[in-house]
Amino acid sequence: MKQPILSIIVPVYNEEPHLPSFFSMLRRQTISRESYEVILSDGGSTDNTKEVAKKFGAIVVENSDKLAEPGVFHGVKLAKGSLVMVLATDNEFIDPQAIEKIVQVFDDASIYAAFPKHDSLKTDTIWTKYYNTFSDPFTHVVYGFSANARTFARAYKTIHSSSIYDIYDYTSNPVRPIIALAQGMTIRSVCLQKRVEKDDDIVLLHQLISEGKHIAYVHSVPILHHTVKNFSDMLKKFRRPVVNAFASKNIGLRKRTSSLTHWQKVKILFYVPYSLSMKMPMLVAIGMAIYMKEMLWLMHPVVTYISAIVIIFETIKQLMRKKK
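Below the sequence we write its predicted structure tokens.
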């Protein structure tokens, strides 16, 4: 195999059932097989994930840190491509030219990273559609229009806009965007060679912004993220940030506290009472549904309320565990 242009890194844990469809999706892409490599970063799978991945021609690296974010870091160590793309097994490109189109964006030497548009199928759950449209409720409340690329144009000055991709001036607003080394984010490997931070997949992109590097939003390329398959799955997603926050200061929002504005910190403090009030979220939901013509806003009071309940119970559970 010749030197690949692209290294696709996939953090996994017990993903054996999903690997056949994932690799089938990759093989439907028009980019030549010789142009990319697939590196699975395995967080200690107890099923046949590693064996199945190798049958599909993937390189497997052990992720001793278990979590997905540092898993990317372990995969990068083996990456040979000049570009690195991070995917999950629940990601799916519909357009067979999707990867090729993203790679072509880097013909512009001023672009150091690029990411596709998160999208959903009609058959996806209402919870998945909410996440792909807004992000999780806590993040959406704290970051507002900066939480999802669909609304970045409302939050930041546009530097370049075309039918293929947009580039925003992320320094034009004190609130930094939620863009992460995940869900199809592609980055020049040179940006990763001196990477020290491995526990947070957002900090690196914020560093690029601080350095004045351009990050393209490739809105012409949708990526499906089948993220929340049912209500139980959503509850697990609400629990995970709380568990991580108690486990380490180097993961998630606690890692990025210094980059938050004063108003964002206020939103964090009042998120639970705001969500439990129901009245405020309802007023916000109705107003934004009319303003943005997006009916999914009407889910906002329900989703924020449920997330607040989970945050309270999980926080109590973690505090009790610490006392033991």
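The mean pLDDT is 92.
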